[in-house]
């Protein structure tokens, strides 16, 4: 299975309601020179399921950060990400079955960096091989 951030990136790019052209996505960082950007981070999560047959059922977590020059635009964009991902179930991406994508918290502003606001939202995932 891929890193969860790779599959989540594919989900967001495929969703026409999420403007990934205006907010380019990087995994593991935020683009330093982009005025508006998105970063997807694989963060610590729950342990994989432990079964006698060693089935690969995982419970990873991701954090998505958005940096934007305009507060209202950034808020609308990170809300579109939350709306796109929250509640997805039984979808296959890059050879992995995502049985659930669950938002843990609504978007929040985390402060400013270079006169740009950073927003964050967190997700728990449930996935396994198909």
How would you portray this structure in words?
There is one protein chain. The relative contact order is 0.23. Strands 1, 2, 3, 4, 5, 6, 7 and 8 form an eight-stranded mixed beta sheet that branches. This protein has a single domain, classed as Phage tail protein-like (STM4215-like, 2-Layer Sandwich), CATH 3.30.2000. It is built from two helices and eight strands. It is of the alpha+beta class and 130 residues long. Strand 5 (91-93) and strand 6 form a beta hairpin. Helices cover 20% and strands 38% of the residues. The mean pLDDT is 93.
Nutshell version of this structure?
With 130 residues, the chain is of the alpha+beta class. It has two helices and eight strands.
């Amino acid at each position: 299975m891929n890193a969860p951030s790779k599959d989540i990136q594919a989900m967001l790019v495929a969703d026409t309601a999420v403007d990934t052209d205006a907010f380019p996505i990087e995994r593991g960082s935020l683009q330093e020179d982009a005025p508006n950007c998105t970063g997807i981070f694989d963060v610590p999560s729950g342990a994989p399921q432990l079964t006698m047959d060693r089935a690969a059922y995982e419970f990873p977590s991701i954090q998505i950060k958005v940096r934007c020059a305009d507060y209202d635009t950034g808020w609308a964009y990170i809300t579109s990400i939350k709306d796109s991902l929250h509640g997805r179930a039984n979808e296959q991406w890059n050879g992995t079955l995502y049985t659930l994508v669950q938002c843990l918290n609504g978007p929040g502003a985390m402060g400013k960096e270079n006169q740009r606001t950073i927003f964050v939202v967190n997700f728990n995932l449930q996935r396994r091989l198909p």
